[in-house]
Amino acid sequence: MAANPATIDDLTARSFRTLTDQEKTVGTTLLGDAFNVIVSTVPTVADRLDATPVDAAFKSLVVQIECAMVLRVLNNPDGKLSETIDDYTYRLDAATSTGALYLSDAELSLLSAGDDAADGAFTISPAGVTGGKTWTSADTWV
């Protein structure tokens, strides 16, 4: 299986602030967890990272997505979606309130791009017709 391409330096470079030592420690662990989520969700990622030569753009994309997943947790550890001051109320984001790492739909789409199984739409064949047969003007299947 491919090694995790993201490092704590990648995470630090994408953060808007200096990460504390504790955040760096947690961040390193979360990067590993994020990579596991990615590979479990899109198994072809590991194959593409193991390819020789490695597609540098794809590797960079994986690093970018891993860091985004981890920064969602580090930047909002309480999982707050909104907060009001008067008559104090706040609302938790269901996805991050658990501290869970997740792939957004857009990230999943980016990682799946180029996969043969994920390309294009599916085809529905009429009942009893398989193997790519087509209908001709003579009303026969060929």
Write a compact overview of the structure shown.
The protein is mainly alpha-helical and 142 residues long.
Largest sheet geometry:
2 strands, antiparallel
Terminal CA distance reads 43 Å
- Report mean pLDDT, rounded to a whole number: 79
Number of helices: 5
Task: Give the strand tally.
Answer: 2
Q: How much strand content do the residues show? A: 5-15%
Helix content: 40-55%
Rough shape?
globular
What does this entry look like structurally?
With 142 residues, the chain is mainly α. It has a domain at 8-77 and 103-112. The protein has helices spanning 8-13, 21-41, 44-50, 56-74, 105-112; strands at 80-84, 89-92. A two-stranded antiparallel ribbon has the order 1-2. Strand 1 (80-84) and strand 2 (89-92) form a beta hairpin. The protein is globular, with a radius of gyration of 22 Å.
Q: Keywords, please?
A:
single chain; 142 residues; mainly alpha; two-stranded antiparallel ribbon; 5 helices
Write the layout of secondary structure elements.
Elements: H1 8-13, H2 21-41, H3 44-50, H4 56-74, E1 80-84, E2 89-92, H5 105-112
Antiparallel strand pairs: 1-2
